[in-house]
Design goal:
Strand content of chain B: 5-15%
Number of domains of chain A: 2
Number of helices of chain B: 10
Number of helices of chain A: 6
Oligomer: heterodimer
CATH architecture of the largest domain in chain A: Sandwich
Shape of chain A: globular
Shape of chain B: globular
Helix content of chain A: 25-40%
Largest sheet of chain B: 2 strands, antiparallel
Radius of gyration of chain B: 19 Å
Largest sheet of chain A: 6 strands, mixed
Strand order of the largest sheet of chain B: 1-2
CATH class of the largest domain in chain A: Mainly Beta
């Protein structure tokens, strides 16, 4: 918390003595690295920022709006649909989405459809309904239509795990130019680099944009076990087996009744 | 207390997993089985990816079977030569099982095949056990002696060549069915994450006529070696063994097994077989329901290159 306060103070200072131009976005994350240890059950990150403006900037009567999109590491995700085959329910049809974000959060200060027009939302890929998903068709990638049933199922299923989320009250304007956004990272969040994209709006028009990034890594024993299992697979297997034998032997000694 | 599993990549409650270990350990101690066919579905239900569940349960079974194998060895209830011959087939079978597991996983039909094998195997074995034990219980009820081993009766298996004499079990059979049984158990065990004890014991009794004195001890040794090698093979090829999950399970499992063994001693053999048969049948039935009833959620997500 102390660190986030410090970051906040820094931005407030930067906002106060910034050079005069059109609107510009300045932001900082409370931390750029989330560490997963054995007690990790999810966490919350805070994004602080300010809108820089000077005397020559046009006054915005309606105030500013902000949309923050956080996208986790990209992976091919396959959505499968069960169907009745020979009397049993088995996975039949499936659709592969290439380079789909494994985590996706769209945060704003009010509903996105109230911030800007549907056309702009589609053009900028704002909101879960508009974020582009691609399918592999031969060697080229094809954009999936927004109301595709497999795409909707993917978003819904990811949503039940808290990995895809759309929150229209996660961004708060502390003053007309200062904002704060909270990013929820659930325990199931995949490891890797997360891109943070921040877009500023006023009167439905996009004014400025900035990006940031954060990283989720395993630390301590989690990291050690995971990397050993991957890099020294055979040794890891043998060690695990020995651990099992030792436990079994120990139990037979402790509970021995002669 | 929540703990984050390094390979399964999910947080679980330590006490829930520990309690599952104790409960399954109790049952496995009572019936002299590994209990993998109960543990694997429980872990999947908890949210552990099926591949990780199958691989980690083999580690857990290796631990619990080692502790009981030591006890049986002390009581001279293990037939070492029979165990060795079964193992020769068992290791080959385990390799084959891990190989098929890898292929099915990449072809995206692993979950279905695991579910189908559970239904077929569990209902068949469970059904046979219930019928057989009810027959024995009824016969003893009528006052007739319960005969399991009919010395005069011979199956076609006993006519096969390469005959070997197994001293401690006092049997004289061909090596071919012994290898075949070992192979089948190793194969099924590695693919389904089960020790196969509940399959091996009836096979040894009915097909090879191994006496009850050595059957469970010998089967435990086979389970131990196939599960220990399955652990190493799963770790080396699929990177799916979660050591932390396995450790929590085995601590619960070996504890529960001690109390289970005591409870098992107070019951007659056929009553135990009847209860185990019901249990096996129940698990098979649950898997069948899942395949036959329309699911609530038609869609599911799979990562390419992730943990199943």
């Amino acid at each position: 918390m102390k660190r986030s306060l410090a970051a906040f103070a820094l931005i407030a200072l930067a906002a106060a003595c910034a050079p005069a131009q059109a609107e510009k976005l300045v932001s900082s994350l409370s931390t750029h690295q989330v560490m997963i240890s054995s007690s990790f059950t999810g966490t919350e990150l805070v994004l602080f920022g300010s809108v820089e403006r000077d005397g020559s900037t046009v006054p915005r009567r309606g105030g500013y709006d902000l949309v923050v999109t956080v996208a986790g590491p990209r992976q091919t995700l396959v959505t499968r649909k069960k169907d009745r085959v020979l009397g049993i329910w088995a996975n039949a049809e499936s659709r592969a989405f290439t380079e789909a974000p494994t985590y996706l959060a769209v945060l704003s200060n009010r509903p996105i459809d109230a911030i800007t027009t549907p056309e702009t939302m589609q053009k900028l890929g704002l909101g879960l309904a508009n974020v582009p998903f691609f399918q592999q068709a031969g060697i080229s990638k094809v954009l999936t239509v927004p109301d595709d049933t497999f795409r909707n199922a993917l978003i819904r299923l990811k949503g039940t795990h808290g990995l895809y989320r759309e929150e229209n009250n996660a961004v708060t304007f502390l003053t007309p130019n200062l904002f704060r956004a909270s990013i929820q990272i659930p325990a199931e969040a995949p490891l890797g680099t997360y891109e943070v994209d921040i877009k500023l709006f006023a009167d439905g028009a996009s004014l400025a944009q900035t990006t940031s990034a954060l990283e989720i890594v395993k630390v301590g024993i989690e990291q050690y076990v995971a990397s050993t299992a991957r890099d020294h697979a055979l040794l890891y297997g043998l060690a695990t087996m020995l651990m099992a034998l030792a436990t079994g032997w120990l139990a037979s000694v402790i509970f021995r009744r002669d | 207390m929540q703990i984050y599993l390094p390979i399964a990549d999910i947080p679980v409650n330590v006490f829930v997993v520990l309690a599952m270990g104790v409960a399954v350990g109790f049952i496995s101690g009572m019936f002299g089985i590994g209990g993998g066919f109960l543990m694997t579905p429980l872990l999947i239900f908890l949210g552990v990816p099926p591949g990780v569940a199958v691989a980690s349960v083999s580690t857990h079974i290796a631990a619990s079977s080692f502790s009981s194998a030591i006890n049986y060895w002390r009581r001279r209830a293990v037939d070492p030569s029979l165990a060795l011959m079964l193992l020769a087939g068992g290791i080959l079978g385990t390799g084959g099982g891990v190989w098929l597991f890898t292929i099915l996983r990449s072809a995206d039909v692993l979950d279905l095949m695991i579910a189908l094998s559970y239904v077929v195997l569990l209902s068949a074995v469970g059904g046979l056990m219930v019928v057989e034990s009810v027959r024995v219980i009824l016969r003893t009820y009528k006052g007739k002696p319960a005969v399991l081993r009919r010395p005069g009766s011979h199956l076609w298996i006993h006519g096969l060549p390469f005959k070997l004499r197994f001293k401690r079990s006092k049997i004289y059979v061909s090596a071919i069915p012994v290898w075949a049984i070992g192979f089948i158990i190793g194969f099924i065990g590695a693919m389904m994450g089960i020790g196969g004890g509940f399959l091996l014991v009836p096979m040894l009794i009915y097909l090879l006529r191994v006496p009850t004195a050595t059957v469970i001890g010998t089967s435990t040794v086979l389970t131990l070696v196939t599960m220990a090698s399955a652990t190493v093979m799963h770790a080396a090829t699929n990177h799916l063994v979660d050591a932390m999950l396995a450790l929590i399970l085995m601590i619960g499992g070996v504890t529960g097994a001690q109390f289970g063994t005591r409870a098992g001693h107070r019951m007659s053999a056929e009553r135990l077989r009847f209860l185990l048969g019901l249990l096996v049948l129940g698990v098979g039935f649950r898997f069948a329901l899942e395949l036959l009833l329309p699911p609530q959620e038609l869609y599911s997500i799979r990562f390419i290159g992730g943990g199943s």
